């Protein structure tokens, strides 16, 4: 099948209150992202979405669109070399590749995970928080998760003092005992504001986390410091995870070859797409590592990672990251532009059985939120 057209809609969804995530310097007043719409010559449309806004639209329109129109996509999807176009502009083509999968799976009238050979009807959710909340707010939120059957949560670290980060963890253990599993994310100790962690700080935190039986420590160092990840992993008894902002198989291979990770966290829309992620998952499996995709982007971006997860063995990919902070973020923001939403029931995300990614885009919502 040939590609007839590709469009990018930049959408801005207003938020009921400003939200500041731990990795960002300023609060969000709204949520801006790109919706990719890919039309096949059969008239079927595939969609995808990624958090990047105007720059992504400019990238697709300028560099990708002219190459994509009339390209034959059904057999090999898009050639891997074509995906490398992303590296010119430090943009990723994964989101575009996901729209192609959606189009092809819809044309074959199959849910994407089934087209990928997946059998899992549901994937266990881990609740991903995004804010640096105080103790009470965090405990209240975890109580909400627990009442919905979710018993694994990821909290953010990198408050001004590590003592404050650890005090939160201590309170979670005191309140919930072993009934809640906890992972910790430091977001590369990276942002526009301090504190920044060096290797010794990351090691100090990792050693502290051992006593709280934490599931994993995510991105404790800047992503370029592969040697630092290996150094840290050798010295601590806690699983180290990373890779959410990487793209290109060679980068993941470098992490795995360096014995730098226990858990590999490629994201279908941030990497070069689902095909690349499935190769990365096999790379992880062949080294007895885990593969837990990062999943934070709107609608189709998040759901792409759900389908990817459902196509992989449970022993390799136990959970799907699910942005649930604030609680309304998942339904009201992630699925602001779709007619249907993904059901989370008894701690599991249920795979949609409609064709493709299983989400129906609302043209009305696009009109309402489109800014360019
Ligand atoms: Mg992360």
Automatic annotation (TrEMBL):
InterPro entries: Enolase-like_C_sf, Enolase-like_N, Enolase_C-like, Mandelate_racemase_C, Mandelate_racemase_N_dom, RHMD-like. Residues 135-239 form the Mandelate racemase/muconate lactonizing enzyme C-terminal domain. Its cofactor is Mg(2+). GO terms for molecular function: hydro-lyase activity; magnesium ion binding. Keywords: Magnesium, Metal-binding. GO terms for biological process: carbohydrate catabolic process. This is Mandelate racemase.
